[in-house]
Amino acid sequence: MKQNDASPRIDPGLFFLRLTGSLLLLYVHGLPKVLHFSEELTRIEDPFGFGPYASLIPAIVAEVICPLFIIAGVYTRLACPPIIAVLLVAMLAVHPN
């Protein structure tokens, strides 16, 4: 049986996508929320009425902690659903247009 010539290139490509996507999420969205926490509390949208603190903490977990797990390659499948949930809330409830 002949080996597929494309498979040695798939792993570095997937690693690059995992690394760059996580670093971008961490750098563009996560770190500003952590570094300017008190300012973000006054600016964050509260689409479900839980309060700004209860809206900001899940966003920080999904945009800082989860990308770090994905970069490390640990619990990757568990780290993705919180990111998807926060992005869906942002897309559908906070910025529907």
Name some characteristics of this structure:
single chain; 97 residues; mainly alpha; elongated
Q: What is the element layout, followed by pairings?
A:
Layout: H1 7-35, H2 37-43, H3 52-72, H4 76-94
Task: Describe the structure in your own words.
The protein is an all-alpha fold and 97 residues long. The protein has helices spanning 7-35, 37-43, 52-72, 76-94. The longest helix has 29 residues, at 7-35. It is elongated, with a radius of gyration of 17 Å. It starts with 6 loop residues before the first helix and ends with a helix. 12% of the residues are buried.
**H/E series:** HHHH
What percentage of amino acids are in beta strands? under 5%
Total of helices: 4
In helices, the fraction of residues equals over 70%
The average pLDDT value, as a whole number, equals 91
Which structural class is indicated by helix and strand composition?
mainly alpha
Low-confidence stretches: none
Shape: elongated
In short:
The protein has four helices and no strands. It has helices at residues 7-35, 37-43, 52-72, 76-94. It starts with 6 loop residues before the first helix and ends with a helix.
